[in-house]
Design a protein that fits this description.
60% helix, 206 residues, mainly alpha
Length: 206
């Protein structure tokens, strides 16, 4: 008789909900839980199996959760939305990224956006959007995240509601992904196609 793996679930839908609950940004739960709870307590509650489905239903709505019975990978292939936003934002500001030549400025920029986004910007310079230069590396890093999140949000407008919230809820409340401008809608498709192709070239995220 074959042995049964105690870690194997017979309910894939519940497994998906637990995975999603573990990825959702803790700040998303704040409005649905007692405001007196500490951040550490919220993190612990998010990890509690018997509460995970209820927490996801509070955020997404029980109807949307129940309709997600055949969830596959999300539209970012399981990768971190902030990473995708930084990659998109780095292309947006690639002209400014390329202008930093001093070791100090490059080091500060990479410290804030990562070496991957820095290299990605240079590789896709021809797709840059912003024409105005930003000469402060910390300000540029903030703007890269700002415009990258906005592009991600604009791109998600064409996704299903389920796919959209599965990505957005992994970001903190209040990022520009929630209110992209018209300029971001105009460029989001091109930039995110480059980002997704890059992510797809890797091994699937765990």
């Amino acid at each position: 008789m074959a042995s049964i793996d105690p870690n194997h679930s017979l309910n894939p839908h519940s497994d998906r909900l637990r995975e999603l609950a573990a990825l959702i940004h803790p700040g998303r739960f704040a409005g649905h839980l007692d405001g007196r709870l500490s951040s550490a307590t919220v993190l612990q509650l998010r990890k509690t199996p018997r509460l995970q489905q209820r927490l996801v239903e509070l955020l997404m709505g029980s109807e949307l959760v129940s309709n997600g019975t055949d969830w596959g990978r999300d539209v970012l292939l399981g990768h971190d939305p902030r990473r995708a936003a930084l990659l998109a934002g780095s292309i947006w500001h690639a002209r400014s990224v390329l202008k930093f030549v001093s070791k100090h400025d490059v080091a500060v920029l990479i410290e804030n956006i990562g070496a991957e986004a820095h290299a990605f910007a240079i590789r896709h310079l021809s797709s840059a959007v912003a024409t105005a230069s930003i000469d402060d590396p910390q300000k540029l890093a903030r703007q890269i995240e700002h415009d990258g999140c906005a592009c991600l949000g604009a791109w998600l407008k064409d996704a299903s509601e389920l796919d959209r919230v599965r990505v957005l809820f992994r970001l903190p409340v209040g990022t520009t992904a929630e209110y992209p401008a018209a300029e971001h809608h105009n460029s989001a498709g091109q930039l995110l196609s480059l980002v997704v192709a890059h992510l797809a070239s890797e091994e699937p995220a765990a």
